[in-house]
Amino acid sequence: MASFVRYSTEEEEKAEGPELESEDDEESGAESFLTDQEMEGWDPAEDFDDYQEDDEEPRNSPVLQHESPPAEDPSTSPSGQDASPYASTKEEQPPQNGRKRGQARARPPSPPHSRAQGSRSKRAQRFSSGRTKTRSRSPRKPQPVYSATSWNTEEDPDACPETRRFVPARPPGHKLNPDQTYTPLDLFKLFFSNKAALTICNHTNKQAAKNIAKGKKYPWTNITTEEFFKYVGLTFFVALVKLGKISDYWKKNTIFSVPFPANVMSRDRYRAISWNIHMSDPEKDGENDRKKGTPDHDRLFQLKPLLDTIKNACLSFYHPRQNLAINERMVAAKPHSGMTQHMTAKPISYGFKLFVLADSSNGYTVDFTVYTGKSQFVSGVGLAYDSVMSLMNKKYLGSGFHLYVDNFYTSPKLFKDLFSLNVGACGTYRDNRKAYPHTDLNALKKNAPRGSIRWIREGPLVFVKWMDTREVSICSTIHPAFSGNTVKRRVKTQGDNWTTKCIPCPTPIMEYNKYRGGVDLSDQLIQYYTVRYNSMRWYQTLFFHFMDIAATNGYLLHKELCREKQEEPMSHKDFLEELTAQLCGVT
């Protein structure tokens, strides 16, 4: 936009005198106005020292400006006595554009009606008091370094790195006796063993005695392992049969009455166990609480030893196949604690966050880590890097695995370090992150046709961009950029008609869509019949989630056994119903 300047006449200049503007006024557009009385009492030499000399070359602005007449040489001026533009008297005005660098600029005054008579702007007061200073520019943000490498297309051949041989530490699949018949209860007790149940019972009895000593008034008798498994069975029954609240399961003489829970356990007994269920030793909880703020404090102490039992069982009774996935899992939580997280992109946006390693072929939870805060991972590389490296245990897994992650985890450093461990990786990435190619040479344009492909290879890493309904970016150390694969898409033709068209699709995206959903499949199986008991104690929330993991992994082991014997497996619901009946002792 052009800026227009109004030049004043000699009569106006003599009447009002020159109006000055500091260099920062030129950028901000602020104006200052001085009256004749202010000009008579103003010493230009005082303000001249406040100006900083500008040694930079003038910037070429795209804004249209009026050409100014050339400055008059002071040596050839009629006065010939003072080269400073401030040396002029009121009768002899200085040339408007004859200033030197670092000096104030004479500016034509605004019309008299632009400001009320006698009013002074803050800028004018600063001029009169000699408090003018130059605006300091903030340093520019560092820009990414752009590579000079050009993007390749799908027509360019790609030299894929040598395929790593798949050498698992154990044969993939279940680690159970194939000649033995396993009931749903047997499979569940692989994760919730009798030993773990006995430990929980002992700690629950101690917690109940502690609460009664504090003044809690409810009848209590020590819980046994048999009663504990009945309590677990009723909890699964609550997950299968949805009612409004817990007390509804013991209602009588209503059309919604359910006789089964009352035949197993009374309502008050079920509530008393729920209030006191405890996994850690209450006597040692106080010792751990006194260590808060020190490195010796264990934030997951109240989950142990059940946490270690569940994790060891997940690793022991099954070995994953070649394709794995890592992702976050949110466990809905009612209580607020320092470990609860908020993730708006997840179906469960608030709760505890777990990093989960799952088998992409069936959704089996191989390993997991409960996130307790940034202090849990102290390598300095980043949370995404540390969470992946903590789950990819080469001693347990072996080598030659393929790991699929989303854009939260993908980074060139992580993929290169996994590649050095003979583990391939593939995942989407965000273009605005560092260490990714940013060259514009032959880059994918926003209006590129659907199915366009661009790729760059840097050693074992291949970066691929693909235009679908939007641009998709993916990185891989496993696949070539393009192998001739196509996918079907519905596209609009002339006349607003829709037709099916085959478009090229990069190999990493084809494989990523096939194997990325290991954790999502596990979450889906858990959410079908999840145990959600709204407890105000955070450790009890995770206790019920461990029950979900044990039941879901037990069902997946059941399917593995049936597939091996070529038998028809039970459905997920039938498996849980049979498990509930066996836990409650009705069959």
TrEMBL record:
Q: Where is this region: Disordered?
A: 1-179
Domain PiggyBac transposable element-derived protein: start-end pairs: 183-555
Spans of biased composition, class Acidic residues? 10-29, 37-57
Q: Which InterPro entries match?
A: PGBD (IPR029526)
Source taxon at top rank: Eukaryota
**This protein is called what?**
PiggyBac transposable element-derived protein domain-containing protein
What organism is recorded for this protein?
Etheostoma spectabile
